[in-house]
Amino acid sequence: MTALAAAPTRAAHHAAHRLSFAHLLRSEAIKVLTLRSTWWSLGITAALSIGVALMIAAAAADYDGFAAVNVVLMPTQFTMLVAGILGAIVVTGEYSTGMIRSTLTAQPRRGAVLLSKAVVVSLVMAATTVVTYAAAILLTAPLLTTGIDWSDPAQSTVPLLFGVLSMVVFTLLGLGFGFVIRAGAGAIAATVGVLFVLPIVVSLFTFGGPNWQWMVDLGAYLPASAASDLTTPGAEIGANLVTLLAWAAGPLLLGWVALRSRDA
Predict the structure, then answer these.
(1) Are 191 and 87 in contact, with CB atoms under 8 Å apart?
(2) 67 DSSP assignment
(3) DSSP for 141-154?
(4) Is 195 helix (H, G, I), strand (E, B) or coil?
């Protein structure tokens, strides 16, 4: 009986070592792209982005001082929540169904599991954002008297690239919280709290006078603020880029620690 019980264990052990990272990426891509929640999230992201861009373009049509690229980028303050929620439910959905145990049995290297999920959701969100931006640019162009100046990267491609990066970071932030909290409601609440609630709370301290200015200054280091600054044409890049990337790395690192230290 001992030999019979040990045989499947050894077989699973050898199968795990034969599972390459490319195979793991393929597996995660299948899981993510076959979820209805993924397509609902991506569809809502695209619809919000394009719809709000059209409204902004119509309102700003006769305003000469408005940068045309902002029409495409300003809806990010709404779509960032959907991106973060998508990252959270990709993980918490596996915990709620118990599929995470099958994933970790097939690939015991938990860091590889986290990395593969991060790569897949990043590529999915990046591709969706690029397509959405392209659609928004085409649809809003007839409404604007002055279009995007593509000859100046600082006024066109650079803010748009940072917009794509911002959406990826928001998704990874939710993914990290998903691994840490494991419960859908909790991970979504944490994600919405960081992306939406904290900026509002910090802004309230503007009424506190000089004694609370330090709290207002901390607001510049929130992910939404860093993303907003990065996507503003001609804005400072260095500190904002570091801040944004740190908000992606921090939750993922915490998620990796939680994944390694707790049973599935």
Answers:
(1) yes
(2) -
(3) GGG-SS---TT-GG
(4) helix
Q: How many CB atoms lie within 10 A of CB 100?
A: 19
C-alpha span between 227 and 236 (Å, rounded): 11
Which long-range CB contacts under 8 A does 234-241 form with residues at least 24 apart? 234/154, 234/155, 241/162
**What pLDDT digit, counting tens, does each position of 153-183 carry?**
988 999 999 999 999 999 999 999 999 999 9
Query: Is residue 221 helix, strand or coil?
Result: helix
Tokens representing 236 are: 């400072």
Each residue's pLDDT tens digit, 52-104: 999 999 887 667 667 889 999 999 989 999 999 999 999 999 999 889 998 88
Instruction: Provide the whole-model pTM.
Output: 0.89
Residue 128 tokens read as 């969706």
Mean pLDDT in residue range 35-49:
94
85's CB contacts (< 8 A; 6+ apart) are 41, 174, 188, 191, 192
Residue 4 has pLDDT above 70, yes or no: no
* SS3 at position 218: helix
Query: What is the domain partition of the chain in residue ranges?
Result: 22-261
Helix/strand/coil for 26: helix
Which pLDDT does position 263 carry in this prediction?
77
82: Cα within 13 Å, side-chain hemisphere: 21
CA atoms within 13 A on the CB side of 81: 12
- Alpha helices for the chain (secondary structure H): 2-18, 21-33, 36-59, 68-73, 76-97, 99-106, 110-140, 157-181, 184-192, 198-204, 213-218, 223-230, 238-261
